[in-house]
Inverse folding.
């Protein structure tokens, strides 16, 4: 079975008969533009508009001819933030959330010949919604970057049968050489499932289903998905006349004692922070080659994965991570929500559920990270989060997916329950060494901003630990020379900056990085780390590469970084 996965907007859920809608008229602030290049947001260069001010409302219009014989389904990969959809001036429906896919069955709204599609987008709820790193001020500043409004992933029409597959969840069982599929359909009928490995049929099953059924398929060939080895199985799922193509990897992940295990073997996580921003497309890569390049850049430096930070990444990126055996943390762009207000728990869970549904089957996702740095608000650090907010999100995630570890709140403030404990540290190497020595020798973590002073929630000895943000050093001649502090200094200004002093030139950086990694690998308690970051993002100039993904290090210096990373092993 041969499927060109990257030709489809979501490689893990493919129906072959689709039509992309790329040509649109765009309007905002009483001005109309005859063309916007979709799926690039209007703030980006690649959209052809580059409107970087606040866009609280905008409108898209296009026309199409329905050539499908069955049901016509309108799909959106992602639109930020609230979307209302109209077909031929008839209201179809709405969606709230800026990072997740949604769809509408528009068959009954269509007419013969040309049909008109209009969408209205409202994006003026930034201080009470999930926005990630999008700047809430007019300009970018600190670790907040250019905003994304409206359509930023593909829009397409799909031909779908009356009886169809709604969802499926894959549960690989390495020990028993079996795949369990939780299959969900919209009605009763017959199913036929075929599994292939390297175009060879390795397992199948037929039967009847009444809306939902767990199906076990024995596999006669087992090839494990592992670090650097993206061994993927193809799968064809048929229900009555509906056919969906997907893929999966045979792998199991868990923590045992202090260590992370992949397929029963210890695996040290050597991750780099990837924020998913692009100089020309902002949230949207120019093409699949840009998506692939970021993974290759990380691998070339000796990292075995990435923490995908404060953004829900393009499904095609996740397919490439699956293909390369590249480990990733799946994260919700949680900044923007008031963690002190439990009224927002429902909104958070609604959007997070959509993320879990879309990305559940990706073998590359080894950890869920729904919340990052649940402290308080950026402008008033006296307003701290409600611990019940964090605990509810963690509990929901674990109830939804028991196959992966989940961190309750990366970097703090932590709650009373988590699968692993982590912390962020951008202090100098001497300070980090002290923290890690205390962790190994005394079983304590005394890190600034890790705990809420009002609570008695501390690191529990013998809980797995990950240093999920560190480094962030500048090595650029144009950046400021200062150490950043939260809610103060460079993190909240518009100048080029990084965490810590300017290490002028790559030679000084390599020396610093070598010292940092030696400290980390000598810590027996740490199960992995994540270095900030892979590339510069706008004014945050602490990447291995520039924002345009150009070299900041010489080839020799990059080889030294790779050698340093490869020196870490169990």
């Amino acid at each position: 079975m041969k499927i060109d996965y990257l030709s489809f907007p979501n490689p893990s859920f493919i129906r072959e008969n689709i039509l992309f809608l790329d040509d649109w008229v765009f309007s905002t602030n009483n001005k109309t533009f005859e063309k916007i290049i979709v799926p690039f947001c209007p703030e980006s260069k690649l959209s052809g508009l580059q409107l970087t001010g606040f866009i609280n409302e905008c409108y898209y219009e296009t026309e199409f001819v329905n050539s499908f014989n069955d049901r016509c389904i309108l799909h959106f990969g992602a639109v930020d933030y609230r979307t209302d959809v109209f077909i031929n001036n008839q209201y179809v429906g709405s969606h709230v959330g800026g990072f997740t896919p949604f769809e509408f069955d528009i068959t009954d709204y269509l007419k013969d010949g040309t049909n008109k599609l209009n969408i209205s987008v409202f994006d003026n709820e930034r201080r009470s919604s999930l926005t990630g790193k999008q700047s809430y001020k007019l300009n970018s500043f600190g670790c907040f970057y250019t905003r994304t409004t409206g359509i930023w992933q593909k829009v397409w029409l799909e031909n779908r049968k009356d009886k169809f597959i709604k969802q499926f969840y894959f549960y690989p069982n390495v020990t028993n050489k079996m795949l369990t599929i939780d299959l969900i359909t919209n009605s009763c009928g017959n199913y036929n499932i075929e599994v292939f490995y390297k175009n060879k049929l390795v397992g199948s099953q037929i039967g009847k289903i009444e809306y939902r059924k767990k199906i076990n398929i024995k596999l006669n060939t087992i090839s494990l998905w592992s670090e650097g080895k993206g061994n993927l199985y193809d799968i064809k799922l048929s229900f009555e006349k509906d056919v969906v193509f997907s893929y999966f990897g045979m792998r199991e992940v868990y923590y045992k004692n202090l260590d992370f295990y992949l397929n029963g073997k210890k695996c040290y996580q050597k991750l780099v922070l990837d924020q998913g921003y692009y100089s020309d497309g902002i949230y949207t890569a120019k093409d699949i080659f840009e998506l692939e390049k970021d993974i290759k850049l990380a691998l070339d430096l000796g990292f075995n994965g990435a923490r995908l930070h404060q953004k829900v990444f393009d499904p095609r990126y996740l397919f490439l991570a699956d293909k390369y055996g590249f480990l990733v943390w799946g994260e919700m762009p949680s900044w923007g929500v008031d963690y002190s207000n439990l009224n927002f728990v429902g909104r958070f869970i609604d959007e997070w559920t959509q993320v879990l549904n879309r990305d559940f089957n990706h073998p590359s996702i080894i950890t869920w990270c729904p919340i990052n740095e649940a402290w308080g608000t950026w402008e008033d650090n006296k307003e701290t989060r409600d611990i019940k907010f964090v605990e509810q999100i963690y509990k929901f995630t674990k109830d939804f997916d028991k196959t992966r570890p989940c961190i309750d709140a990366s970097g703090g403030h932590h709650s009373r329950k988590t699968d692993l404990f982590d912390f962020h540290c951008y202090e100098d190497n001497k300070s980090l060494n002290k923290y890690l020595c205390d962790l190994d020798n005394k079983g304590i973590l005394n890190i600034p901003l890790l705990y809420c002073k009002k609570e008695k929630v501390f690191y529990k000895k013998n809980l797995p630990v990950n240093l999920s943000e560190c480094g962030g050093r500048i090595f650029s001649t144009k950046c400021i020379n200062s150490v950043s502090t939260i809610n103060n200094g460079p993190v909240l200004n518009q100048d080029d900056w990084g965490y810590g002093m300017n290490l002028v030139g790559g030679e000084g950086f390599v020396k610093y990085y070598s010292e940092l990694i030696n400290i980390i690998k000598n810590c027996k308690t740490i199960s992995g780390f994540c270095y900030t970051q892979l590339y510069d993002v706008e004014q945050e100039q602490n990447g291995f590469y520039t924002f345009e993904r150009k070299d900041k290090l010489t080839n020799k210096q990059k080889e030294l970084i790779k050698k340093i990373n490869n020196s870490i092993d169990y």
In short: The longest strand covers residues 178-197. Confidence is low (pLDDT under 50) at residues 480-488. The two ends are 38 Å apart (CA to CA). The first helix runs from residue 288 to 300.
